[in-house]
Amino acid sequence: MVHTDVHVVRRRARRVGARAAVHAVLIGYSLLAVGPALLVVANSFKERQAIFDSPFSLPTPSTWDTSGYETVFDEASFPTYFRNSLMVTLLSVLGVIVVSAMAAHALSEFDFRGRGLLRIYLLAGIMVPIRLATVGLVELFGSLEMINTLWALILVYIAMGIPLGIFILSQFFAQVPTELKQAARVDGAGEWRVFAVTLPLVRPGLGAVAVFTMLPVFNDLWFPLVLAPGESTRTMTLGAQQFLGQFETNWNAMLAALSLAIVPVLVLYVLFSRQFLRGLTEGAIK
Predict the structure, then answer these.
(1) What is the pLDDT of residues 124-158, one digit of tens each?
(2) Residues 19 and 94 in one domain
(3) How many other CB atoms are there within 10 angstroms of residue 199's CB atom?
(4) How many domains does the chain have?
């Protein structure tokens, strides 16, 4: 009896030790990933000398300095950049979710000729980078007189996110009970109504698609530089990059600009990370 109790205690201790090791690795990786961003934000509120004397310390009343942010808002239109980024990101995510959800429902619900080829075509859209079509996109939007418009970015990002969105949501729509959809049809519901009934059941998948679309769109520098480089259409990332090129020696302004570019992304990830992880785990388990 005593030997059994000792064995159980040892097994529990090994289990606790393994969990502690896993948590230590995860915490260390999180600090490694988030630490530089927090360091940039902390130093953006310190005077220039304190940035070099104690870069790893938090700002104190004696080192507190917001001149970098004053320079940023005086010399650049960061509120406009943020508004542009927010508008492009929200409309792109909305477009990807709407189109992907409808297409995924059709692919999982209806058996039609060429469905397999269509799936392969969508998978190719995931693997082939859309940046390879930059020249064609510039010519297309130039002929449509849409260069330096936010709609050019929105349409490109929607097209970029649809293949992955359909791929993810198809798995979720395929797991919706067939009995539920058949019961809705028996009650006289049309296909649009059936789609509306099943949509709340795939909310974790919608959250995963939203995060997968949101972060790359908000962080993208290539297409804003090519399609919308004008002052009134610049996004946060492009505005920060061009601002940094003008103030290479003003460390306070550079760190303030970087902070304004980093913080929104961190906030978006914190707000939607739980829904994102829930979507991935539920899709894998089911």
Answers:
(1) 888 888 888 888 999 999 999 899 999 999 999 99
(2) no
(3) 17
(4) 2
Chain centroid, CA 128 distance in Å = 19
Name the residue range of residue 20's domain.
Answer: 2-43
Mean pLDDT of 59-85: 83
For 5-19, 35-49, 174-188, which range has the lowest pLDDT when averaged over its residues? 5-19
Q: Is 133 exposed, middle or buried (0-12, 13-18, 19+ CB in 10 A)?
A: middle
Are 102 and 162 contacting, i.e. CB atoms less than 8 angstroms apart?
no
3-class SS of residue 250:
coil
Q: Residue 77 above 60 pLDDT? A: yes
Query: Is residue 86 one of the residues assigned to a domain?
Result: yes
Distances (CA, A) of 41 to 38, 58, 73, 144, 145: 5, 10, 16, 41, 39
- Rounded CA gap, 137 and 157, in Å? 12
Q: Are residues 18 and 129 in the same domain?
A: no
Distance, in Å, from the CA atom of 217 to the CA atom of 219, rounded to the nearest integer, reads: 5
Please name every residue paired with 46 in a beta bridge, in sequence order, or none if there are none. Answer: 64
